[in-house]
Amino acid sequence: MRPTVAVVGAGIGGLTAAIALHRRGVEVVVHEQASALTPLGAGIAVGANASRLLRRMGLLDTWSEAAVRPQRIQFHRWHSGRVFCSHEMGDTYEEMFGAPFYTVHRADAHRLLMDTYVREGGALELGHRCVAVAEDEHGVEVIFADGSATRAEVVVGADGVHSVVREALAGPDRPVFSGTSGYRGLAPVERLPRLPELGFDPTRPALWLFPGPGRHLISYPVSGGRLVNVLAVIPDEEWTVESWSARGEAAEALAAFAGWNEVVAALLGGMESVSRWALYDREPVRRWSSARMTLLGDAAHPMLPHQGQGANQAIEDAVVLADCLAGCLSDRPAGVRQDEVAAALRRYESVRRPRTRQLQMASRRNRECFQAPDGAPAEERDARLVHLPRDLAWIHGHDAQRELADHAD
């Protein structure tokens, strides 16, 4: 029997969708291009808009050892390191937005989702790189690089920024280069011995942000506090490698932040390995779905990292998509009606596209906030940061499932 749903890509969004569908009795197979799942990536922030969904799925409990719950967010002067704006997080954040905020190593989050999916009997095919999809009235054929193929009633493209499924749905597109690149890495806490004396207490974890003229740095603990994630963004028209795993050098990052404060130098110098990542996104696509195919996460709406919402939006997509599809796919051994699937995919897209488009644009604008020049632009930014919790409520206070329930088809 062919699977009801083929999920192309075993990332955070693809696995979350697969777990949600599998639990509702939908036959799912996840196809992943990697032949082995290895720990990759660095830190991600999981806001209340995603953690409330993970908690409803019973997935958040397993994160307690791997994730960190920051107690505050601090903005520091680029030249002195002095705190100029701070907001409490921890319980205060959870009371405000209804769910916790975590920072976690992407590899830990991925492993926990994968363990859950496999433990619950989910089907996974490794070494299956999708190179083409072909839809007809009876289903979708998924063709792989090794010449093999499979058919499914529905295909979900969770295959990232270079999505084959997106190109089949929306045609070829060109990445939009931001003119910046990011140095990203992880620093073991033992390589940061001076942080406490510089005012960074590891027993009270925080998000540390250093906005500055033309560049900025963001840092926070992950992996139970054993590692500190660092992202340093600089103007860079020459580095155009669209990959967050391309190698970089800590010395280059240090040179790019010459003249900044001691904490920035310590964080950059403490990274064990560094990736250099040209920052691209893409223009919002006009459609995500056909009668039997759809997209989620970066395949649908790749965005710059300046709102910290990439993984969060993939989780929102996944849960909403599963809710939309479950009604027409669960307990249907005789097959599904194409019009019912198409209606479910239209509903999913109509709910998700406006929000993700808004976040794509907000992520572009936020770089200007982080990299405002000294003087009046920085003073205007500082005044806005006082109201940060209020200004971010539309992101972190959002309940994707409630929005779906309120949405009329």
What's the structural blueprint in terms of helices and strands?
Layout: E1 5-8, H1 12-23, E2 28-31, E3 43-46, H2 48-56, E4 72-76, E5 83-88, H3 90-97, E6 102-105, H4 106-119, E7 123-125, E8 130-136, E9 139-144, E10 149-152, E11 154-157, H5 164-170, E12 176-188, E13 206-212, E14 215-222, E15 227-235, H6 250-256, H7 262-270, E16 274-281, E17 293-295, H8 310-329, H9 338-370, H10 376-385, H11 388-391, H12 393-396, H13 400-406
Helix pairs in contact: 1-4, 1-8, 2-8, 6-7, 8-9
Concise overview:
The protein has 409 residues and is α/β, with parallel strands linked by helices.
Please give a handful of descriptors for the protein shown:
single chain; 409 residues; alpha/beta; FAD/NAD(P)-binding domain; 7-stranded mixed beta sheet; 5-stranded parallel beta sheet; 17 strands; 35% helix
Report on the architecture of this protein.
The protein has one domain: 3-Layer(bba) Sandwich (FAD/NAD(P)-binding domain). It is 35% helix and 24% strand. The chain is built from 13 helices and 17 strands. A seven-stranded mixed beta sheet has the order 5-4-13-14-15-12-16, sandwiched between helices. Strands 7-2-1-11-17 form a five-stranded parallel beta sheet, with helices on both faces. Helix 6 (250-256) runs antiparallel to helix 7. The two termini are 31 Å apart. Residues 4-360 form the FAD-binding domain. This is Salicylate hydroxylase.
